Fold this sequence. Notes:
The structure is a homodimer.
Chain A: H1 12-22, E1 26-28, E2 35-37, H2 39-58, E3 62-63, E4 69-71, H3 72-75, H4 79-85, E5 90-95, E6 98-106, H5 111-121, E7 130-139, E8 153-163, H6 166-186, E9 192-196, E10 208-215, E11 221-231, H7 233-237, E12 241-243, E13 249-251, E14 253-260, H8 262-271, E15 288-292, H9 296-310, E16 319-321, H10 329-338, E17 343-347, H11 349-353, E18 356-361, E19 367-371, H12 375-400, E20 402-404, H13 408-414, E21 420-424, H14 429-439, E22 441-447, E23 455-456, E24 463-464, E25 467-472
Amino acid sequence: MAREITKRSEDYAQWYIDVVLKSDMADYTPVRGCMVIKPNGYGIWENIQAKLDRMFKETGHVNAYFPLFIPESFLTKEAEHVEGFAPECAVVTHAGGKELEERLVVRPTSETIIWDKYRDWISSYRDLPILLNQWANVCRWEMRTRLFLRTTEFLWQEGHTAHASHEEAEEEAYRMIHVYRDFAEKYMAMPVITGRKTEQEKFAGALHTYCIEAMMQDGKALQSGTSHHLGQNFAKAFDVKFQNRDKELEYVHATSWGVSTRLIGGMVMCHSDDNGLVIPPELAPLPVVIVPIWRGDDEQDRVLGRARELTQDWDPLFYKIDDREQYKPGFKFNHWEVRGVPIRVEIGPRDCDNNQVIAVRRDTGEKATLSMDGLEEQIRKLLNEMQQGMFDAAKKRMDDRTYTVDDYADYQQRIEDGGFFRIHWCGSGDCERKMQEDTRSTIRCIPFDAEPEAGQCLICGGPSERRVVAAQGY
Amino acid sequence: MAREITKRSEDYAQWYIDVVLKSDMADYTPVRGCMVIKPNGYGIWENIQAKLDRMFKETGHVNAYFPLFIPESFLTKEAEHVEGFAPECAVVTHAGGKELEERLVVRPTSETIIWDKYRDWISSYRDLPILLNQWANVCRWEMRTRLFLRTTEFLWQEGHTAHASHEEAEEEAYRMIHVYRDFAEKYMAMPVITGRKTEQEKFAGALHTYCIEAMMQDGKALQSGTSHHLGQNFAKAFDVKFQNRDKELEYVHATSWGVSTRLIGGMVMCHSDDNGLVIPPELAPLPVVIVPIWRGDDEQDRVLGRARELTQDWDPLFYKIDDREQYKPGFKFNHWEVRGVPIRVEIGPRDCDNNQVIAVRRDTGEKATLSMDGLEEQIRKLLNEMQQGMFDAAKKRMDDRTYTVDDYADYQQRIEDGGFFRIHWCGSGDCERKMQEDTRSTIRCIPFDAEPEAGQCLICGGPSERRVVAAQGY
Lengths: 474, 474
């Protein structure tokens, strides 16, 4: 099974597809660019949802649900927004056997339909803030699709908040990108850099966009979450005003922020290896698999009996005993390894004699001999160590492959090997576009923690005040 | 606030709409037949999801996600299915700025797209059973819509299982309708009758359909959940065969089962009153609201301080202290009453002196004086009593309004006042249609617990072997 996966060193893109398919996370469908998320992938999404949802609620947000369909005319109300999204839309023209009077767009994002309702809901500063989030499917008709990373339909959450002041909206946009950072680092074991997108890369309709960017194992960047300060753009487009404390009418200030099933693609490319999927324990649908090893019926009864006895008080969603009789232990080891189960526990007759088991970590392959006494606690400790170990390894990789470069020829050569490049940039869109044409790399973000540092733009030599991070990206 | 709600006795249909809107559960949108589910409604759906999802997992199911779009040709592969659903479909004809080669239907239900994949996934009895569930939005272009009860887009779950034998599929379909019954009775406090749909009322493409039917306060029936034994119909339509243990090729056996946001409409019509929404505690987004009562700053500090002290160790999602200064207690009582918060706790200065609070149950209006010592535990006990009390009241209402009738003229008169009618029926579709034309009532189900009883069909006088349940329905 594992040998069917292409090696990363041979073909990284093919390795990724192999891992996703062989690990039973997803499959293709006959619908262009749409995938099936299979249980081993959807279980990860359920864990992502559960953790993020709690973080959203702890920061005062509540969930709601708006329609899938958006009247086509809504999209045109915000000029930049329509330019950004209209070319990607799927359009419903017929329904109930008739042609529709107004065509309906399948939501590519929900700003317009939501701000149309906010007009009805907001009249006074007392109605603010509104702190809503939505878990939903969205559709963007992409030309080139790739499982999880870019699909025509995908699952996501989109926060949409309304505020009485610029400062409050700014605080919210900034708060939420840090919620995403904490989520990525704590639960996905995926270190990120946090900062602001350039004008060219910001969301269509935003004042500015904050992002988290993660480094994949090939050194490329993956934009993993964004938070937009929308200013009063959507309030103006949909005429949403409120009476402030001084009884004056003002336009409402907005943010929106989202992460999607793309995160799962990021998780794969950040952590997995040539043997298949590696899942951070915090997101694993199945944290532990127990493989009993026996020859003959007597041993089978004894080993299986002991495994069941050991786990009788465990949460049934925490572990599985692979008691299938038609497969040998080696086959089972591979089966669960490819699928990314964090800890494999092996129990054989000799282990029973010695009151011990062998526990194998999926990320490092390290084997530990654990006493059967207090086994669950020892395994949970191992899972925590693995979670931290995965983060540390990914962090070291990102740090090792983050370079400071000041010569454009040097940059053009080295960018092909991947990595994050701290470069000086004058702020001009022209330089940004030239770099993109020359190197297929982009400015990923202007990091929040960039220190003031005078320098010269890598591309044009013009004055620059701080370094930005550039990389090739997904 | 409460007085803006139409009385049930005056106009039951308008009362329902008023409750849904005033309780902040949902709102209309400019998209025909589509609603916004607002946080007070979506919070109930989140609780429904959490409880049901656990019940599905405890019965061995896992979640997956299939595409929103279905190639139009797929729908036509099962003859009854296309007849049932094609007229209701929304159709995407353009995407990415171009006309599509094959039109895509927005899923009205997912049997076809799922069985198309099952063909790839199933080849041997070892691949069976497949026990998948999907949480998703679906779209059926309805002519007449009503908030929650019938909307063009709605949220639901759909289970889709594949089995090696007729008996196993039958067991599954029967098991799941009982999961729905248990859910409705235990968490929604909504008693149901459980049974089989007639041929005319079954799902388009099923061998037979099981259902749960609940009685609303106007005596009408609401179909609240269905479970279908699909036989080999979809396996034949999509050519899904497996090799059985005897190495013979056989078509796979199927079930599907679903409940939707319609349940929330049922909950409203089963439990709410002229003052607004009443939510069973098990589904309440906010179980407890605390309204402090004060005059002047000193009292405010004292009462609010005490309220905060009392609740400092409580789960923040369990309660809210309504400390708004711009509103009087009477306004707050109404505010939370309309929104259906199960328990209101009042704390005034005299209560502080006496180390007590007043707790008011939303369903009965009963007031109880509770000691401040061990308050959380007493409130949780009250919530449990309320949950049981709501079920008992609804059960008594259903029993009181379930009639045994043997005279068609009598039936035609009494059906207009609502209620469930135990009638004899010969089994003919003609009689069923005649009854429907004469009385706008239908056979809701053939109950599982119907005792054999010889009788004469209420409509034609022909022989009947057991009573069925008829009612007007939603």
